[in-house]
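> forwarded from #structure-qc
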C-alpha cells in the first residue's frame, strides 16, 4: 500500500483533524461498549456455565444469533426497533441512538456481547466448581465465592475477552453505519472513515486509516500472546 502514499504524507494525514476525530471516537465508543458488555456478559456467561434453569438451551441459542447474523442486519434490526412506538419512547425519554454517537456504542455492544459471553463461558467451563464449593464451606456466599475464587482464576480468559471484544468493537462497521449513519466529524469511526474516504477516492486517507487499524490489530495480538506467556 506504500505505493499510494509516502511516510511524510501518511503522518500528516494521520494528524489531520478528521482522522484524529475518528481515532478518538473509535477508542472511546469501543471502550464504553466493552465496559457495558462486561457488566452483562460476565454474569450471563457464569449463569449459563454453572446453572441449570428452564429455557437455558433456548437462551444459549439466542445469544449466538449476533455471531451468525451479518452486522448490517443487526443494525437494521436496531433501526427498525427504534421506529416502533416503544423505541420512539426510549429515544425521546432517554438517549437518542439513531444517527447519533450513542448508536455507535449500542451497535458495538450488540455485536461484541456474544463474543464476550462465549469466551467467558468457555473460561468458566474450564474452572473446577470445587473451588467455589470450598469457598462456600469457608462461609462465603455464592457471590463472594465467585469474586474471591472463580473470577481470579478466570483472569486470563477475562483479559482475552476484553481485548478481543474491544478490538472487534474498534473494527465494527456494518451495524454502526446502519444505526448511527456515516457523517463526517460526528459518527465517523475508523471503519466509517475508510468507507467515506473510499467513496470520495481519497486514497491517502484510506491507506492511513488501514495502517492504523493494522497497528491496533498487531498490538492486540501481541498483548494477548505476551499476557498468555506470562500466565503460563
Amino acid at each position: 500500500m506504500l505505493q499510494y502514499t509516502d511516510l511524510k504524507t501518511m503522518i500528516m494525514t494521520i494528524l489531520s483533524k478528521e482522522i484524529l476525530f475518528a481515532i478518538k471516537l473509535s477508542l472511546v465508543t469501543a471502550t464504553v461498549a466493552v465496559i457495558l458488555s462486561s457488566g452483562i456478559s460476565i454474569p450471563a456467561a457464569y449463569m449459563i456455565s454453572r446453572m441449570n434453569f428452564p429455557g437455558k438451551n433456548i437462551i444459549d441459542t439466542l445469544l449466538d444469533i449476533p455471531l451468525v447474523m451479518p452486522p448490517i442486519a443487526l443494525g437494521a434490526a436496531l433501526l427498525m426497533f427504534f421506529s416502533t412506538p416503544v423505541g420512539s419512547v426510549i429515544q425521546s425519554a432517554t438517549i437518542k441512538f439513531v444517527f447519533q454517537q450513542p448508536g455507535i456504542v449500542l451497535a458495538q455492544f450488540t455485536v461484541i456481547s456474544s463474543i464476550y459471553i462465549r469466551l467467558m463461558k468457555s473460561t468458566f467451563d474450564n474452572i473446577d466448581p470445587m473451588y467455589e464449593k470450598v469457598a462456600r464451606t469457608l462461609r462465603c456466599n455464592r457471590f463472594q465465592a465467585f469474586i474471591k475464587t472463580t473470577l481470579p482464576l478466570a483472569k486470563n480468559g477475562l483479559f482475552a475477552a476484553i481485548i478481543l471484544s474491544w478490538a472487534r468493537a474498534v473494527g465494527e462497521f456494518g451495524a454502526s453505519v446502519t444505526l448511527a449513519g456515516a457523517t463526517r466529524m460526528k459518527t465517523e469511526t475508523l471503519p466509517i472513515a475508510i468507507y467515506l474516504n473510499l467513496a470520495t477516492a481519497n486514497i491517502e486517507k484510506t491507506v492511513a486509516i488501514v495502517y492504523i487499524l493494522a497497528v491496533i490489530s498487531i498490538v492486540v495480538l501481541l498483548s494477548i500472546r505476551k499476557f498468555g506467556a506470562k500466565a503460563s
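QC bot note: The radius of gyration is 20 Å. The mean pLDDT is 89.
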